[in-house]
């Protein structure tokens, strides 16, 4: 289904229920965009918007609307919708939202205010996409996440740069490493630490949510399977611990250019654990009533811990300028995902028995991986969990092929179009900056 830019759907033809108008409330917020690549800048906008209300409706533009106003998308509409729906702070995703934000769309879903970053977004005619909601006094501004955008990521791919790599995540977090002076290191550390805390919040965006650790081990233990080393875990953020009866599930990966392939894998892990829960009577009425009586609430049967490899590990195995996103950019993407409950930064490529036995929550009940071909052909990185009898594999799915390599391939196959997009984006940015300056002077 497609919706032209000036059309308002007829009753029964809205892309997402409800079909009848909802009462407008100040507590339901609207945010919209392209959401091409699910980078942490998008998640940051949704987090800030969610904190302004109790519900967040996220409009996603169609491929056709983006092509007309901005240029070609890298991800399809389905892939972009999957990314938005996985964000813990999104209440509902509305596909085919118009590129220019019309009040009837916002009002139909009962949203009083529209939220956007403090940058100007213009349509193909150079006009402000939010001019109508601004004129109606129903626009709210949040701070744009600096240093990350779809344009930045495309640029890294086209130029094959490695400037974004983080040599040591721990030294960066302690202010001992990074660009600039020691004072700049300190400020950067404070900002990064706060971002990790923010992205580890629960679905309200206000309360503690995810447990976050960083693992320290030798390079041989990180890179391969020849060194049996427990390493050490350090807590970065205290969040919600597993509840009684929940199975601890471990997954790991690079999660580079966090995409529909990663998201669907994580969703499938929870789906398989839900089936396992049915088999062990988790959803029996008496078990549900017991959980509510003893814990004050019901909850799902699995608690997912995601290990994220650092930049050096990924580059060792994949070469070139992989990963396209650095350890913190990838970590923030995983943190915002509703299918994850805890995160381990700098996890080893091969989870050894000693590593799994030293994990803060104890030995996992299961270690999952998708049916993919491992990068190294000389050994199986999951031999330890297989020997321990806790390894499980998810089934294949429609987004199985969507990973960093696939996304970079899409860019390179359409290099000329994306380079033109980069040039057009720079030209638009200059115009938008003039509009922003004009607005500031007249304010």
From TrEMBL:
Tell me the ranges covered by the Cytidyltransferase-like domain, including all copies: 31-154
* GO CC, one annotated term: cytoplasm
Any signal peptide, and if so, which residues? none
Q: Which UniProt keyword terms apply here?
A: Lipid biosynthesis, Lipid metabolism, Nucleotidyltransferase, Phospholipid biosynthesis, Phospholipid metabolism, Transferase
SUPFAM superfamilies from the UniProt entry: Nucleotidylyl transferase
Which protein is depicted?
ethanolamine-phosphate cytidylyltransferase
Q: In which pathway does it act?
A: Lipid metabolism; Phospholipid metabolism; phosphatidylethanolamine biosynthesis; phosphatidylethanolamine from ethanolamine: step 2/3
- A single MF term (Gene Ontology): ethanolamine-phosphate cytidylyltransferase activity
Cross-referenced InterPro entries, in alphabetical order? CCT, Cyt_trans-like, Ect1/PCYT2, Rossmann-like_a/b/a_fold
Which EC number(s) are documented for this chain?
A: 2.7.7.14
Q: Origin organism of this chain?
A: Aspergillus heteromorphus CBS 117.55
Q: Name one GO biological process term.
A: phosphatidylethanolamine biosynthetic process
Q: What class of enzyme is it?
A: transferase
Family per record: Belongs to the cytidylyltransferase family.
A Pfam family per the record: CTP_transf_like
């Amino acid at each position: 289904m497609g919706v032209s830019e000036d059309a308002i759907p007829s009753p029964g033809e809205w892309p997402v229920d409800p079909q009848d108008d909802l009462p407008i409330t100040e507590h339901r917020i609207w945010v919209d965009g392209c959401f091409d690549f699910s980078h942490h800048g998008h998640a940051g906008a949704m987090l800030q918007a969610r904190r302004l209300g109790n519900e967040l409706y996220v409009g996603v533009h169609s491929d056709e609307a983006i092509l007309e106003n901005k240029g070609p998308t890298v991800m399809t509409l389905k892939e972009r919708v999957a990314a938005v729906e996985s964000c813990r702070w999104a209440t509902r995703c509305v596909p085919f939202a118009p590129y220019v934000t019309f009040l009837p769309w916002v009002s139909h879903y009962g949203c009083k205010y529209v939220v956007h970053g403090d940058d100007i977004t213009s349509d193909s005619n150079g006009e402000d996409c939010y001019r109508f909601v601004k004129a109606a006094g129903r626009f709210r501004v949040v701070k744009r996440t600096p240093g990350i955008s779809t344009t930045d990521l495309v640029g890294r791919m086209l130029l094959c740069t490695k400037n974004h790599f983080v040599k040591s995540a721990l030294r960066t977090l302690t202010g001992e490493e990074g660009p600039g002076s020691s004072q700049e290191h300190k400020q950067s550390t404070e900002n990064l630490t706060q971002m990790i805390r923010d992205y580890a919040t629960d679905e309200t965006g206000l309360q503690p949510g995810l447990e976050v650790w960083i693992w320290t081990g030798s390079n041989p233990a990180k890179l391969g399977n020849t060194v049996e080393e427990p390493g050490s875990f350090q807590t970065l953020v205290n969040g919600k611990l597993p509840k009684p009866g929940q199975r601890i599930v471990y997954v790991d990966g690079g999660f580079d250019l966090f995409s529909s392939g990663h998201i669907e894998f994580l969703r499938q892990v929870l789906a398989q654990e839900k089936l396992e829960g049915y088999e062990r009577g988790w959803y029996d009425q008496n078990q549900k009533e017991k959980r509510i009586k003893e814990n004050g609430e019901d909850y799902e049967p699995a608690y997912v811990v995601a290990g994220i490899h650092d930049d050096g590990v990924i580059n060792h195995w994949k070469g070139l300028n992989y990963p396209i996103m650095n350890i913190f950019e990838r970590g923030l993407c995983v943190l915002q995902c509703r299918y994850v409950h805890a995160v381990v930064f700098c996890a080893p490529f091969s989870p050894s028995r000693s590593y799994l036995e030293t994990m803060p929550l104890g030995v996992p009940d299961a270690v999952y991986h998708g049916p993919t071909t491992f990068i190294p052909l000389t050994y199986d990185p999951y031999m330890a969990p297989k020997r321990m009898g806790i390894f499980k594999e998810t089934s294949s799915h429609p987004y199985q092929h969507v990973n960093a390599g696939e996304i970079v391939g899409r860019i390179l196959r359409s290099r000329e179009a994306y380079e033109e997009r980069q040039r057009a984006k720079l030209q638009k940015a200059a115009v938008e900056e003039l509009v922003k300056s004009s607005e500031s002077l007249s304010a």
